[in-house]
Design the sequence.
């Protein structure tokens, strides 16, 4: 007779899987999903702005135009007309420099997979996008935090770090960073590209928000500056760029891309084959149909709405936040970042905010090596004027109580 004892799944998990942790913040944020809570926590694009009719029409067009090929297996590299359009945005690059990914989140995972050997040093902004940390973590980098100010990464601090650390990869979000809303200045961009080129550091530039600038001047990407630095040779560029249609069109089609030197793109193709063969071809064809008319129109609509919401939020913060509560002033994107006086713990404060029917994301999970206990992220993209008024008043009251 055989007895069946329950399988010990935890012991069965790989070392890599053991490194994947349920986020305590995610658990905490479940609290905030009740309908009467005004949540500035989730970084969701505004659903009422989605171009649903255009997506519906494009779906029909794609079936008429491509028939069965629209739902057949596709190439791993991605739908050629989409890659051609992406390549045409940057002089000097070709579709061979572009890999379509299933969201830029997949790009981060695949880049981690092909670049990081356990123990490799990865420099990340402090704070940075927590989803990137989650993507890279199973590949076991050793993180080095890069201090930032209002102009983005402090390049002189990176220069000092490079004296003692062999940084292999630097991950950055130069435009309207998630979580801080900050934008890297032109001078810092130039200095960063030059310094990393000199030290042979691979730069991963994550840019899902770049097109959503509602104030200030457009700045060149690190990728473009990298191209210039290398005399226009796309295969010599040490900057690898990633962007997405999630924030400009819709996130649910999961269409995004990575562009970079051919050796890295070719390696990503191999990694992606093993991951999902290809990004859904139907979705790529729909996005391609929307590029000419809908995308530019949609970018204007989204920018105007988010710009107005950011202004609303900052006006209410001026009114309701006590002295000592500081916040960033974003020029685009979906987020702003609040720093409270030292000693205030925003994780402890969250249940009190939820009691007052408002929610945010505490800052610590955005720090690769800990810190930021007195910080929090607010998202204005999915909030209407009335919610901003009530929500920021409630948050202001919560903070005032905490400071007493
Ligand atoms: C900085 C950053 N990178 C990547 C992503 C992932 O975007 P997606 O996978 O939808 O393209 C996000 C989403 O919020 C983000 O903020």
Sequence:
């Amino acid at each position: 007779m055989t007895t069946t004892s329950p399988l010990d799944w935890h012991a069965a998990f790989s070392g890599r899987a053991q490194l994947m942790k349920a986020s305590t913040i995610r658990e905490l944020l479940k609290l905030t999903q009740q309908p009467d809570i005004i949540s500035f926590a989730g970084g969701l694009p505004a659903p009422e702005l989605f171009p649903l009719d255009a997506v519906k029409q494009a779906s029909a067009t794609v079936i008429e135009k491509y028939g069965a090929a629209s739902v057949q297996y596709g190439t791993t590299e991605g739908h050629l007309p989409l890659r051609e359009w992406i390549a045409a945005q940057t002089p000097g690059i070709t579709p061979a420099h572009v890999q379509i990914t299933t969201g830029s989140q997949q790009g981060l995972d695949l880049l981690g997979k092909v670049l990081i050997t356990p123990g490799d040093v990865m420099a990340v902004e402090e704070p940075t996008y927590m989803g990137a940390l989650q993507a890279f973590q199973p590949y076991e980098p050793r993180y080095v935090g890069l201090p930032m100010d209002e102009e983005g990464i402090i390049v002189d601090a990176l220069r000092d770090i490079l004296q003692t650390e062999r940084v292999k990869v630097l991950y950055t979000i130069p435009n309207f960073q998630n979580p801080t809303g900050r934008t890297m200045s032109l001078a810092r961009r130039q200095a960063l590209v030059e310094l990393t080129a000199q030290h042979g550091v691979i730069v991963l530039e994550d840019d899902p928000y770049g097109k959503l600038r509602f104030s200030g001047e457009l700045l060149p990407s690190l990728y473009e500056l990298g191209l210039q630095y290398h005399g226009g040779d796309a295969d010599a560029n040490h900057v690898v760029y990633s962007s997405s249609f999630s924030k400009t069109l819709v996130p649910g089609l999961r269409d995004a891309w990575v562009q970079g030197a051919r050796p890295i793109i070719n390696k990503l193709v191999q990694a992606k084959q093993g991951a999902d063969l290809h990004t859904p071809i139907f979705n790529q064809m729909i996005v391609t149909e929307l590029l000419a008319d809908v995308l530019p129109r949609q970018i204007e609509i989204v920018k105007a709405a988010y710009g107005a919401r950011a202004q609303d939020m900052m006006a209410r913060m001026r009114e309701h936040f006590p002295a000592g509560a500081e916040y960033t002033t974003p020029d685009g994107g979906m987020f702003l970042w609040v720093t409270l006086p030292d000693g205030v713990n925003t994780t402890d404060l969250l249940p009190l905010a939820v009691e007052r029917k408002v929610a945010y994301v505490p800052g610590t999970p955005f720090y690769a090596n800990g810190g930021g206990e007195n910080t929090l992220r607010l998202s204005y993209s999915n909030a209407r004027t009335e919610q901003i008024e009530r929500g920021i008043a409630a948050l202001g009251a919560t903070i005032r109580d905490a400071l007493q």
In short: The radius of gyration is 22 Å. The pocket of pyridoxal-5'-phosphate is lined by residues 43, 103-105, 129, 131, 173, 178, 206, 208, 244, 246, 251, 256 (CB under 6 Å). The chain has a mean pLDDT of 96.
